[in-house]
Amino acid sequence: MATTRHPTAPRVTPGIELGIGSVAVVVLTVMLASVPLPLGLAGMTIAVIVGAVLIPDWRYSLALAVITYFLFVGFVAGDMGVLSWRGHDALWQFVAFGLAYIAGLVMRWLMHAPPPD
Question: What's the pTM value of the predicted model, to 2 decimals?
Answer without folding.
Answer: 0.82
